[in-house]
Each structure stands twice: as C-alpha cells, then as structure tokens.
Design brief:
Keywords (chain B): Signal
Order of helices and strands of chain B: HEEHEHEHHHEHHEHEEHHEHEEHHHHEHH
InterPro entries (chain B): Bact_solute-bd_prot1, SBP
Distance between the termini of chain B: 63 Å
Distance between the termini of chain A: 32 Å
Oligomer: heterodimer
Number of strands of chain A: 2
Signal peptide (chain B): 1-25
Shape of chain A: flat
Largest interface: A-B, 44 and 53 residues
Largest sheet of chain A: 2 strands, antiparallel
CATH architecture of the largest domain in chain B: 3-Layer(aba) Sandwich
Number of domains of chain A: 2
Number of helices of chain B: 18
Order of helices and strands of chain A: HHHEEHHHHHHHHHHHH
Protein name (chain B): Sugar ABC transporter substrate-binding protein
Number of helices of chain A: 15
Pfam families (chain B): SBP_bac_1 (PF01547)
CATH class of the largest domain in chain B: Alpha Beta
Strand content of chain B: 15-25%
CATH superfamily of the largest domain in chain A: MetI-like
Number of domains of chain B: 2
C-alpha cells in the first residue's frame, strides 16, 4: 500500500531536478540544437501565419491605403461594418448556404462511403470516381459548372431537363435558385475527400460488431444505426465542425459563379470582406475588411468552443 | 555539445541556401540596374492569341534594339475593377500598366503611381494632348502623371449575321432606343439568340446603365462647390432600366445570361450568341485579339441619343508607372510608354512600323477611337496607316461616320467605380426578378451612392 507520506518523497526529487535545470544543462541536453532546428519553422509560421493575423488586428482599427501612413480610427471600422445593411444580407446568405450544405452535403459522403464499403468488386474504381472532382482544380470545376448552368434552353442541364419535358431553369440567373445551385457544385466538388475519410474510418470498425448484430437479428439499417454510426461518431463530429467552419468561409463559388449576385442573393460574409477590400479599384476599405474578418474569426472561435463543450461527453 | 554544433552548422547551411534563393529572386525584380542595364516589367494584355503575342514580342525586340541598356520583361495584365485593387495592394503590378480614366486622379492623389511628370514634360508632344482627354491623367497642379494612350465613346456593337438571319438590314442598325428594342425582339424570335445583352458584374452593370442613361440626357452625379450629389433616381435612369425590364420580361429578347462581365459578354458576342450590346467604341481590337471574332459578323454604330444634353459616355486608358519603380526604372518605363503606346499616334515612321507589325501578325489595324491629340492628328495618323488597315471599315461606317457628331460626356467625376458598383445589383435585380420595382431600386441606390459620395 502506498502511504501518503511516501508520495512527497517521490515528487520532491522531480521538483528539485527541475529546479536544477540551468542554461548549461539545457545546452548540454541539446536545447540549442532543438531551437535552431525549430527556428526555420517558427520563422515561416510566424511570418506567414501569425504576422498577417497581427497585422489584420492592427489594421482593423486604422484607415489605410497601404501606401500612405495609416490613421488610427478606434472602433469606427467595426461600427461601419455593423451598420452596413449588406452585413445582414451576407450573414443570412452564409447561414442559408451552410444549412443547404448541411442538408445535402453532409449526409451524402457518408451514404456514399457506406454504400461503397458494401461493394465487393471494383471498390478502387468507385473510390477513384468519387475522389475525381477533388482533383479537378476548383476554378476549372466552377467554369465547367458555369457551362452546365447556362440559363438558355441550350445549356447542358436545361437540355437534359428538356428531354423529360421540363422547361429551362434559370439556375444562377435567379435569386431563388442561385444559392442551391452553388451548394450543388460545392457538394460535388468536396464530397470525394470526405468519402475517403469515411471509408478509412469504416475499416476501423471491428467486424465482430457486425457479426454480433447479425446474430441479434439486426437488419442492414439496424447495423448502420447501431454499429456504424456510433463507431464513426468521433470522425463525424470532426467533419461536421470542419464543414461548419468551411461553409462560414465560403467564397470561391459565389465569387466565381455570380460575383454575389443576382441582386446580392449570393453575397456571403467572406465575399463582403473581399468587396470591402477590393471592390473600389482606387483604394479598398481595408480597415472594414479586417474588422469584419476579426468578427468572423471570433464568432467561429466561439462556435467551435461551444460545439466541443456541448458534444464533449458524447464524442469521447 | 557536439550535436548542437552540428545542428548549428546544418542550420547555417540551410539559411545560406535560402539566402541564395532569395538573392536569385531579387536579381530578377524590375527596375534593378546591373552593369548599367535596367530591367522593367511591362503589361501585356491577358489572354492574347498567339499572333498578338508575336506582334508584342516583335515590338519588345525593336525597343530593346533601340535602347540597348534596357531589358523589357512582360507580365499578363488586364485591368478589372475587382482585381486591380488587390494587385495594387499586393504590389504585384508590372512597372508599366494601364488604368481607366476613372482611376487616374485618385491614384495620383494617393501617390499610388509614380510621379513621372517631369519625364512626360520632356516628351515632344506633351503640350499637344486633347485637353478634355489629358485632364484625366493630371494632378491637381496640372502635371501629367498618367499618359492618356486611348480614348473612346460608348458604341453599340452588333452582329451582322444575326441581323441578316432575323430579316434585318445589317447596313441599317437601330438609330433609336425603340428600334433597339424591336430589332432585339426580331433577333431573339427568329434566331433564338439574345437580341440585346448587357453587362452586370464587377461594376460593369453600373457602367453600361450609366451609358444608356447619359444617352437619354441623364447624369449620375452633379457638383455644387465641393459637394457631389447623386442623381441616379431620375427619369433617364428610370427609362433606361424600364427599357431593360421590358426587353427582358415582356419581349424575352435578352437570352438567359444576366451575369455578364466585360470578358464574358465579349466572349458570347464573338461566339455569335448576342445580337447587340453597348461597350467602348474601340472594342473591336479586343474582340479579335482575345475572342477571335469572325470579322464578317461584326458591325458597329453609335449609341442612339435622345433628349436634351444626351451624349455618349466617354472613357479611356492611361498608362502609368508603378510607385515602386526607382529613377532608372521610371526613365525606362516612360521610354516604353513613348515607344509602345504614344509614338504610334504621332510619328509617321512609328505609326507605319506599328501598323505593319500588327498587320503582319493578323492583328486589327485601324479600329476607331476618340483622338488622344486633336482630330487633325488623328486623321493624319489614319492616312499614314491606310494601306495596313485590315478592320472591316465598311462595317464600322455607321459608327465612324457619326462618332464626331456626338457629344462625349466624361464619366462621373467622384467615386466612379464605387458608383458603378452600387448600380450593379439594380441592373441584376431588374433582369432576374420580374416584380422588381424600378423606382424603389433607384431610390435605394441613390441613397447608398450619396453615402459613398459623402465619405
């Protein structure tokens, strides 16, 4: 039995050893070598990751055109952003994109992965086909889909719809259909990557669990619900939070497909940041752009912490 | 200790390697002078077809031969409203690049382009510029810091083949807005293509709406003392927008794409998908060099003017030098501007040499423009290069024969691009929402433009 008296006797030498660590022992222990090896990474990371963040934070309280000396303006940029009527539109649109992406884009890769894991032949071919859109450069994908979404009767999708007697649809050319059209392309482009993650995770599910479920008379759906999903919940949480963060920062699709139109129907928060900074060719409002970026980062940070707190017990 | 020393040695080698690489990179940056040689990076239009690139490279060779101490490198660049600012802020612009008239004064005031006024002043033609044109490149004291290289008035471009297919006479393009509408409907009904199309993205929607409103006697802003007032909530803008709405929803003559930018609409026009659209009068050059338009398809006429004070919205291009350029690079850059852009407008031998090179590369020679100097010099230049003109001049007759009869109205003076940007969603709304309320949209736009002007 370990006595309470014994415990300090084991802890004391450790603490005293720590106290004895001097620059000389650190040097002798290879500390300098470690630091020197770490230095390039710290420099690169600091220069390209942390320095821009610090610059952005500073710029958010300044008015600057990046050429002449900046002027300190306090919270004015934040106030300007919060009073901009387009901010509400951008937030609603971003949430709408996230909801649509969650409804269509989140379950689809899982369904595809489960189905593909059940396939016995040509599994590699299906994986390759699923992953192919990820390999296509995003700009190329968008240009390709722009062609598909041609609103005239001769557009690719409209021609297909014509075969079954459906009249041409406006796709990107209508405020109501533009956002779902963007989500459709985004889902197509991104699903492959998540499918591969799920496929790898499915391999880690012990087969004996399925055997046991089968002995208990579980149907296919029962096996998915009671075995597959609980076993994948950790990875499902991670992909969910990544998807929420990703959709909150959606930029490429609205920028390339519609430029935020028609009539601001696809203006997202990130596109609004871009417009603050770059729409006026003779000098952007970099202060407002960085102020909104910081607000977005704070909101996403809070969301992530909340999400992990709420699901901590369940996801372990 | 030994391992630490080894690590330090390894890291030193690594840093030395990185240093060497960065040294290599800096040795090729613009404006550097090594052994008395200056290297400058100049803009070349993005997306040029092979013959156009060859013509450009031939000019570079000639320039380098005439100026052995200057090396010219080129970088693809085309000004667009929403990318220019990013390039400017990122410092990725070439030493010599071009900007529209709308941006000249702001960039000069903000010192975002180099002050080349003393070098420009020394050019022999510095005092001969068309005053209405050169003021776009002057600072507050009247020094030329940006060189006007081209000027234009808005024109109506039309597809002659679609006109013929629709049973219209391609030699009699529309002369009123009512005829634009009826011809557009005829084209859409008979050919299935868009009879009329308009740009709507990257500030171009506002640009073309403003062009149509100016052709109806409107103005986007007025100035009283130092205060600018937004005036887009007025009859000409309402009529221009209502015409678009009628063509879109009543006539169904505008096709299925309502998210065009400048590149996109040029592409579809060259591909024969658009009957008519408004753009700069000198657009034919881009349609050939970037979009490979069939010359036989092309037709050009003036924008119909109706009402008091109606005029063609003007515009143009300025050549400027990067604010980062050092003295040697500035000097070399002005030499390039003089050689590549200006001497061809004013010196016979250069005009002929340029026309010859362009024609040999099957590039358009003789597309109409508004004179950068005076009308006499312009006509003289056209005479010099007459034998090399390869653009379909007869098909441009409706424009060329009337362009000088039209008043050219300068673009809105304050916050031009932001003003155009605020009108983009208005045009998009009218073209994508059947129930869009023109009055309400313009009233809201007027309020937001006024806020921009009051900043």
């Amino acid at each position: 039995m370990t006595t309470l008296e014994n415990r300090p006797s084991t802890a004391t030498p450790t603490r005293s050893a720590a106290r004895r660590r001097t620059p000389v022992t650190w040097l002798r222990g290879g500390g300098l070598g470690n630091l020197v090896f770490l230095l390039p990474l710290l420099l690169v990371f600091g220069l390209f990751s942390w320095w821009p963040i610090i610059r952005a934070a500073v710029m958010s309280v300044q008015t600057t055109n990046l050429v002449t000396a900046p002027v300190f303006v306090g919270w004015a940029n934040f106030s300007h952003v919060l009073h901009d009527p387009l901010l509400g539109t951008a937030i609603v649109n971003t949430i709408w994109f996230a909801v649509l992406a969650l409804i269509f884009g989140y379950p689809l890769p899982l369904i595809m992965a489960v189905l593909m894991s059940e396939v016995r032949k040509a599994k590699g071919l299906y994986s390759a086909l699923a992953y192919l859109p990820v390999v296509v450069p995003p700009v190329v994908s968008v240009l390709l889909w722009k062609f598909f979404y041609d609103g005239s009767a001769t557009g690719v999708f409209n021609t297909i719809l014509g075969w079954v007697g459906i009249p041409p649809q406006p796709w990107l050319q209508n405020a109501g259909t533009a956002m779902p059209s963007l989500v459709l392309e985004a889902t197509w482009a991104a699903a492959g990557g998540t499918v591969i993650i799920y496929l790898a995770a499915l391999l880690s599910v012990p087969p004996e669990l399925y055997d046991a479920a089968e002995v208990d008379g579980a149907s296919v759906w029962g096996k998915i619900w009671h075995v597959t999903l609980p076993q994948l919940r950790g990875i499902l949480f991670v992909t969910l939070i990544l998807q929420i963060i990703g959709t909150a920062q959606v930029f490429l699709e609205p920028y390339l497909f519609t430029g935020g139109g028609p009539n601001h129907a696809t203006l997202t928060v990130l596109l609004l940041i871009y417009q603050y900074a770059f729409q006026n060719s003779t000098g952007g409002d970099y202060g407002s752009a960085t102020a909104l970026s910081i607000m977005l980062a704070v909101v996403l940070g809070i969301l992530s912490v909340l999400y992990f707190r709420l699901t901590k017990r369940w996801s372990v | 200790m030994k391992s630490s020393l080894k690590a330090i040695a390894a890291a030193t080698v690594l840093f030395a390697a990185v240093g060497t690489l960065s040294g290599c990179a800096s040795s090729s940056t613009s404006g550097s002078s090594a052994h008395g040689k200056t290297t400058i990076v100049v803009a070349i239009d993005a997306g040029l077809k092979k013959p156009a690139q060859d013509a450009f490279n031939a000019q570079v060779k000639l320039f380098e031969k005439a100026n052995p101490t200057i090396t010219v490198k080129s970088r693809e660049y085309t000004w667009t409203g929403t990318t220019f600012s990013a390039e400017l802020a990122g410092g990725t612009l070439p030493d010599v690049f071009t900007i529209p008239f709308t941006d000249g004064r702001s960039l000069i005031e903000q010192k975002q382009v180099a002050d080349i006024s003393s070098l420009v002043k020394a050019l022999p033609y510095a005092s001969k510029f068309n005053p209405a044109v050169v003021k776009n490149g002057e600072d507050a004291s009247g020094n030329i810091q940006a060189v006007p290289i081209a000027a234009y008035g808005q024109a109506l471009h039309y597809n002659r083949t679609l006109f013929t297919k629709a049973g219209l006479d391609p030699d009699k393009p529309p002369t009123t807005w009512a005829e634009v509408r009826s011809d557009a409907k005829a084209i859409a009904d008979k050919t299935g293509e868009a009879g009329y199309a308009t740009m709507t993205q990257s500030n171009t929607g506002g640009w073309i709406l403003t062009s149509a409103a100016y052709a109806l006697g409107g103005r986007a802003e007025t100035k009283s003392g130092k205060k600018f007032t937004a005036t887009v909530d007025t009859k000409p803008f309402k009529k221009a927008l209502t015409d678009l709405k009628t063509m879109r929803w009543t006539d169904d003559s505008m096709g299925g794409n309502f998210l065009y930018d400048w590149n996109g609409i040029n592409q579809d026009f060259a591909a024969g998908k658009i009957g008519m659209y408004i753009s700069g009068g000198g657009n034919y050059g881009s349609l050939v060099s970037q979009n490979a338009i069939k010359p036989a398809d092309y037709g050009e006429t003036v924008v119909p003017l109706e009402g008091k004070d109606a005029g063609a919205l003007g515009g143009g291009t300025l050549a400027v030098v990067s604010a980062k350029a050092d003295d040697a690079a500035k000097k070399a850059s002005v030499k390039w501007i003089d050689f590549y852009y200006m001497s061809t407008l004013i010196t016979k031998s250069d005009a002929v040499r340029d026309a010859k090179t362009q024609a040999a590369s099957q590039q358009p020679v003789g597309a109409p423009q508004v004179p950068v100097f005076d009308q006499k010099t312009y006509k003289e230049t056209q005479d010099w290069i007459k034998s090399y003109v390869n653009v379909p001049v007869d098909q441009m007759k409706p424009y060329v024969s009337q362009e000088f009869d039209q008043a050219i109205i300068p673009e809105p003076a304050s916050q031009t691009q932001a003003l155009y940007g605020a009108l983009d969603p208005v045009v998009q709304a009218v073209l994508t929402d059947k129930n869009a309320n023109v009055d309400q949209l313009l009233s809201q736009a007027n309020t937001s433009i006024q806020q921009i002007l009051d900043k």
